[in-house]
Amino acid sequence: MHTEKSLKILAIETSCDDTAAAVVALVGGVPTVLSSVVSSQIELHRQYGGVVPALAAREHVKNLVPVIDEALRASDTGPNDIDAIAVTQGPGLIPALLAGVSGAKALASVWAKPLIGIHHIEGHIYANFIHTLTTDNSQPTTIESDSGNRKLEIGNSCFPLLALVVSGGHTELVLMRDHFEYEILGRTKDDAAGEAFDKVAKMLGLPYPGGPEVAARAAQYGKEGPSLRDGLVEAIQDSESSGSPRPRGLGLAKTDKKNLCFPRPMIDSGDYDFSFSGLKTAVLYEIRKTAEEDRDEPFINGICHAFQEAVVDVLTAKTRRAIEEYAPATLVIAGGVSANVLLRESLSTIVASEFPYTAFVVPDFKYSLDNAAMIGSAALLRYARLSPKEREALKKNAIDLEPDANLPLSKP
Ligand code: KG4
Ligand code: ZN
User: Fold this and answer.
1) H or E element in which residue 31 lies
2) Claim to verify: residue 280 and residue 349 sit in the same structural domain
3) 268, 301: one domain
4) Is ligand 1 within 6 A of the CB of residue 28?
5) Strand ordering across the sheet containing 18-27
6) Which position among 68, 205, 254, 326 has the lowest Cβ density within 10 Å, counted as fewest Cβ atoms?
């Protein structure tokens, strides 16, 4: 790939409920984050149990200028230092996208800069290519993710690359044979994985966004400590006096969910499609079996644990099959659910034990959720490949860029 020193991009992301800006530079051919600012609207939307598009847009309009200003100041960057502006063009909520795209168009016009529209999921995938500043700078052509000893090379050797995309709006297995070439092997037929996490959280009365809440509850499963309610005192004493270990969950009252196992939808379907709405319904029916007043900590933790296991099992099984078929050099995960620790561990385990020639790379936690650095990363690598004529066209056409709520992942 053509690389040049010190290309610098200001990137903007407003596809959902985070107003984000970042300054990202191509250092030795590798996207390097100079500043990344995210203003979250979670507190605002939490009271409605999900993102309200009109409110999100209003907040983006209010926050965009301060967020951009902070990103520029934190990286000591002025308009003259910037080669181009990048913005999330879609998919996402149209009112939210419009705020970012309008701001980016205004800056691109006034500063006479090329404007690059980036696909949100492309950004999530390219979060895996971000060079974290903790990396050894003497080796600028490789980047290290927080998976530790694995390095993702920017060059051809990382392809074919398999991306498990798991966000609030998408669940897809994507095969890349080169940069910016996407073949969608399969996708969800209904809910996205993150959406399922959010809906299960809602059913349990947990706050939005549900993913981190459900994951945290699942991690507490079995660690609640004994509850002396429900007449289980004797059973606990028996196990202690006989010296036998207390079975997991014993003493956790009648709401203990230790044997709970939810269905794994489409796990054996032989293709790469997913479905999570049946699992969500199974969870709903299970919750309804217990009266609201009996839905205590062990109950909630048990449901979260069993649900998360089911989702991770399905994602892992489909990914394993795709690795078997396509033998990718690299497996990456992309989107908000890539922050899920059980998913990271599960994929890491199968890759290490079954696929020694596949490198498993995960985004740094701070670039797992929505941010603008990932948009800048994709934009830098796209921009670096363009001829002067193509760059000029992006400058001339900046004003014509329009957001697209259903933007498809495109060819280069
Ligand atoms: O990529 P993202 O920030 O926004 C979209 O593009 O949709 O993903 C947000 C999704 C939400 O559904 C959220 O619940 C989920 O990612 N999520 C998680 C975790 N952290 C965020 N899901 C499971 N475990 C997590 N730790
Ligand atoms: Zn996202």
Assistant:
1) strand 30-40
2) yes
3) yes
4) no
5) 30-40, 18-27, 7-13, 84-90, 115-119
6) 205
User: For residue 412, how far is its CA from the centre of ligand 2 (angstroms)?
Assistant: 21
Q: Specify the residue with its C-alpha closest to ligand 1, atom 10.
A: 168
Looking at the fold, whether 193 and 314 belong to one and the same domain comes out as yes
User: 360 alpha carbon to ligand 2 midpoint, in Å?
Assistant: 20
Distance CA 350, CA 339 (A): 18
> Please, which residues have CB less than 5 A from ligand 2, an ion?
167, 370
Pair 119, 162 in one domain: no
Q: Is the CB of 211 under 6 A from ligand 1?
A: yes
The predicted-structure confidence for 183-202, as pLDDT tens digits, reads as follows: 999 999 999 999 999 999 99
**One domain for residues 205 and 181:** yes
Name the domain boundary from 340, 362, 384.
Answer: 362
Find out whether the beta carbon of 334 lies less than 6 Å from any atom of ligand 1.
Answer: no
- Ligand 1 binding pocket includes 336 (Cβ within 6 Å): yes
What is the count of structural domains for the chain? 2
215 lines ligand 1 (CB under 6 A): yes
Determine the length of the chain. 412
Q: Give 53-118 as a DSSP string.
A: HHHHHHHHHHHHHHHHHHHHHHTT--GGG-SEEEEEEESS-HHHHHHHHHHHHHHHHHHT--EEEE
Token representation of residue 403: 């957001």
DSSP string, 124-188: HHHGGGPBPTTS-TT-TTEEE-TTSS-EEESSGGG-SEEEEEESSS-EEEEEESSTT--EEEEEB
The whole model's pTM is what?
0.90
What SS3 class is residue 238? helix
